[in-house]
């Protein structure tokens, strides 16, 4: 939508929402961010897939409830066919089925439409950098769901012991992720920078073979840290 200016490469983003009154203003606002280039706006999943095929695309900001092809199935197809494209869900729905369905399909982030412009921009940039972002409401929902479910089988990954080589700080960071804190919240809690938090998270995820933030929440609960 907006022409790419000279300088550092900006993330190429698709905004997908079936409501034009949501889609168009959101695309216009995100297009003002210096790190984001909105290359298409889509009204359903088929338009998303067509725009990605025409590419290149880095991130899709995805609504879940869309006609023709919904957000979860579109996310699943993107994960299978275009794994290099990150999906950040932006929806009004924060029920277990929607959250688990989207994350299970491969979404890298999940926000509700209560999120502000800065939160959405931050989530898109994080997804483009290979990180996962869940808003506080979604993290709390995952925590509640995990705690009320029956204990998993002995071989379940969530119950696997954490590696012995995790540092005390990495365990502390995992515990705070399990409590639903964002990177910024962890940084404020531990009196360290967000960059340092990201370093701890990257090391933690690599050592413990944690896939994403949702997986980290499950592992924290399984280890009794949350």
From TrEMBL:
Listed Gene3D superfamilies: 3.40.50.2300
Domain HTH luxR-type: start-end pairs: 159-224
InterPro entries membership: CheY-like_superfamily, NreC/VraR/RcsB-like_REC, Sig_transdc_resp-reg_receiver, Tscrpt_reg_LuxR_C, WalR-like
Record domain Response regulatory: where: 12-128
Record SMART domains: HTH_LUXR (SM00421), REC (SM00448)
UniProt keyword terms in alphabetical order: DNA-binding, Phosphoprotein, Transcription, Transcription regulation
Pfam families the UniProt entry points to: GerE, Response_reg
Keyword DNA-binding: yes
Single biological process term from Gene Ontology: regulation of DNA-templated transcription
4-aspartylphosphate found at: 63
GO molecular-function terms, A-Z: DNA binding
Protein name from the UniProt record: Putative two-component system response regulator
UniProt source species: Streptomyces lividans 1326
Lineage: Bacteria, Bacillati, Actinomycetota, Actinomycetes, Kitasatosporales
């Amino acid at each position: 939508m907006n022409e790419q200016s000279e300088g550092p490469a900006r993330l190429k983003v698709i905004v997908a929402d079936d409501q034009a009154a949501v889609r168009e203003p959101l695309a216009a606002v995100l297009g003002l961010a210096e790190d984001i280039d909105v290359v298409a706006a889509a009204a359903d999943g088929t338009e998303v897939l067509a725009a990605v095929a025409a590419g290149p695309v880095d991130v899709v900001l995805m609504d879940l409830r869309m006609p023709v092809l919904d957000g979860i199935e579109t996310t699943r197809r993107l994960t299978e066919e275009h794994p290099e494209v990150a999906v950040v869900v932006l929806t009004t729905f924060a029920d277990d089925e929607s959250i688990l369905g989207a994350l299970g399909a491969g979404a890298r982030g999940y926000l509700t439409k209560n999120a502000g412009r800065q939160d959405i921009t931050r989530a898109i940039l994080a997804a483009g950098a290979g990180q996962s972002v869940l808003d506080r409401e979604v993290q709390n929902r995952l925590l509640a769901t995990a705690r009320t479910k029956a204990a998993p089988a002995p071989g379940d990954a969530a119950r696997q012991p954490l590696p012995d080589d995790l540092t005390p700080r990495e365990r502390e960071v995992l515990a705070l992720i399990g409590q639903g804190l964002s990177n910024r919240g962890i940084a404020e809690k531990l009196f360290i920078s967000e960059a340092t938090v990201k370093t701890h998270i990257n090391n933690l995820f690599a050592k413990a073979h944690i896939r994403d933030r949702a997986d980290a929440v499950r592992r924290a609960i399984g280890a009794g840290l949350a």
